[in-house]
């Protein structure tokens, strides 16, 4: 079923929240990556109470080849109605015919941040020179196997002119939050989206990397091309993109993307 942009836009007014629980309650099956998960976990109970729908969730990275990665789940044929993931990765799925392009809604912007083990000294990272020095001084560095980590590995180190120096002490972490590795003391510095660093106990978030070398990740949602409950799925997306959801999204380290009301 193809969901028109006009219909999705109309839902973004907040009608899904204003209406009483649906006469017919549906199950909405969701696959979601880590960056939007903290906000999502707080918002889903509100959506279920407002609509009567029930949401079941599978978690995994937006990209990569680990067992729980969303593309791998889809290739296994796992059922899903809504995909919430890095926008670039969702674009790839729409190009493969696995998601409905017209249903896509961008939900939030997410900056890359740095974390250290709780109680450890926080390095200065507010300027490019300071970030470079912090990386050179660190004994070990970890970064994710999703969008932020791909940028760190393929672009950030090169832009800082320290690609060679980072070899041997910087590594990509598959299928686990980078902050968990830092909390165990297995990496001195951890790089990931701030929204993924904040929920993990045992680390302190130093802050975002400087704007001139920052890469903002867009988290987006869309309807699976094989959705069994596309209308209820679109209601969930509309709720997550609504003004009512914005304060929760902001508290989890994300910048919610405002959507104009449909006319």
Automatic annotation (TrEMBL):
The keyword Signal applies. It comes from the Bacteria. Residues 1-25 form the signal peptide. Keywords: Signal. PANTHER family: BLR4797 PROTEIN, MOLYBDATE-BINDING PERIPLASMIC PROTEIN. This is Substrate-binding domain-containing protein.
